[in-house]
Specification:
Order of helices and strands: HHHHEEEEEEEHHEEEEEEEEEE
Bound molecules: 2-amino-4-trifluoromethylsulfanyl-butyric acid, cobalt (II) ion
Number of strands: 17
Structural class: alpha+beta
Number of helices: 6
Helix content: 25-40%
Strand order of the largest sheet: 1-5-6
Mean pLDDT: 94
Largest sheet: 3 strands, antiparallel
Length: 299
């Protein structure tokens, strides 16, 4: 049986929240399944979106704490002269020490436990023995699995003293994520999130990568829906309480186009311009959002 809300059995707790069995409550009263359950079933069937219940949310939040602490660890350690492999080892060991597993390791053949994306690398950079230089920007993306629950987060760091272009792209990428998250509430759609991000990035003279998107997360690494970081207001599916997905805009200082290196993972800007990214795992609540990977987004 897949996780998520599929159907309410006669002996299940009534979805109206009464605490009674379904058969003793709404089923008996002849009440239709509440609108929220009806739409949950629809979302599962039509869009393959599995809504998360309170227990699932707490599980993802616990995994999220390991994600946040991993990023904090990286923050303390990052400086000119260290390698991205060193950051990989650090997070790998920290993750295991906390009873979790790093989802990237061996995911579709990915060879390491985190992604480290330097300067013009957009995403999916592979940790290696390259030494970080003063003025580099590095995105570190972590995804711990704890008790079967996934949380996904990333942040772009400065190495030493950043130049003006680095300061600009990192602050715009950070703001894009913030504006995207602020659109998260029931009644809004996925398109509202994409529009807010694209509008800010493009009016700032930057561009939004389209080949990679945010995604549902929690039971698996990558679930439905896809969360594009561009779009039009009101387009796409409506957000429902219980949806958990990432928002992770990749913003380029130059044009949006990319290519993939020979390793089949590393995505770089085609024009060689700097690229920055921030990612959070976000829950849709009845009134708005709750961030399940609440890291400090200062660089
Ligand atoms: N963490 C990335 C994301 O935000 C995915 C990395 S896939 C990997 O979706 F294989 F490179 F780890
Ligand atoms: Co992600
Ligand atoms: Co990620």
């Amino acid at each position: 049986m897949k996780k998520g809300i599929h159907k309410v059995g006669r002996n299940d707790p009534c979805p109206c929240g009464s605490g009674l069995k379904y058969k003793k409550c709404c089923l008996k009263k002849g009440t239709e399944q509440p609108a929220s359950v009806h739409s949950a079933l629809q979302y599962a069937k039509r869009h393959n979106i599995l809504l998360k219940g309170p227990e699932d949310v707490e599980g993802i939040r616990q995994a999220g704490r390991i994600a946040v602490e991993s990023l904090n660890l990286v923050e303390k350690e990052i400086r000119p002269g260290i390698t991205t492999d060193h950051l990989n080892t650090l997070v790998h060991e920290f993750t295991l020490d906390n009873g979790a597993k790093p989802a990237p390791l061996n995911y579709r053949g990915f060879p390491k436990s985190i992604c480290t994306s330097i300067n013009e690398v957009i995403c999916h950079g592979i940790p290696e023995n390259r030494v970080l230089q003063d003025g580099d920007i590095v995105n570190v993306d972590v995804t711990p699995i704890l008790n079967g629950y996934y949380a996904d987060a990333n942040k772009t760091f400065f190495v030493g003293t950043p130049g003006p272009d680095a300061v600009k792209i990192v602050s715009i990428a950070r703001e894009c994520l913030k504006l995207g998250i602020e659109q998260v509430k029931p009644t809004n759609t996925l398109g509202d999130i994409g529009w807010a991000i694209q509008h800010y990035a493009e009016t700032s003279g930057c561009s939004v990568v389209r080949e990679f998107v945010g995604h549902g997360v929690g039971f698996e690494f990558h679930e439905a829906p896809q969360v594009t970081h561009y779009g039009r207001k009101g387009d796409g599916i409506r957000l429902l309480p219980g949806m958990v997905f990432t928002i992770e805009p990749m913003i380029n200082l130059g044009k949006r186009h990319l290519y993939i290196l020979e390793d089949n993972w590393t995505a770089v800007t085609r024009d060689g311009s700097l690229s920055a990214q921030f990612e959070q795992t976000v829950l849709v609540t009845d009134t708005g959002y709750d961030i399940l990977t609440p890291f400090d987004d200062a660089p």
